[in-house]
Please model this.
Amino acid sequence: MAKTVTGGCMCGAVRYEYAGEPIFAGNCHCRDCQRAGGGAGSAVFGVSKAGLKITGPVKYHEVLGGSGQKISRGFCSTCGARLVSFPSSSPDLATIAAGSLDDPSSYKPQMDIFTASAQPWDVMDPALPKFPRMPPTG
Model:
């Protein structure tokens, strides 16, 4: 992806900008992501929370994610588009919905996570590493 990424919601009321390289990029197949998006899961990339600038009317909803930890999901309070999440298990991390990028073609997933929850009709890229839950850290 580019060094600076920008994006926003469908109606344009919320915008974000991040300067720097993503920490990771992956497709999450947990039940929470399936329910939140109404599909196979979520394409997301992680960034440093400190470097993320968000402007506009964001509403937050707290849920339990596939990890069992709380996640604060941010969406546009005008059009309802999902944009960003803040996992309580990693307080310095923000995850951004790849589809909200101004140039979503710049998203390059590195892995599939929570594949144990993937639906049988979910088609995954066989070239990507698969993790039944969260990938190992360190």
Observations:
- The two ends are 23 Å apart (CA to CA).
- The chain has one helix and ten strands.
- The mean pLDDT is 91.
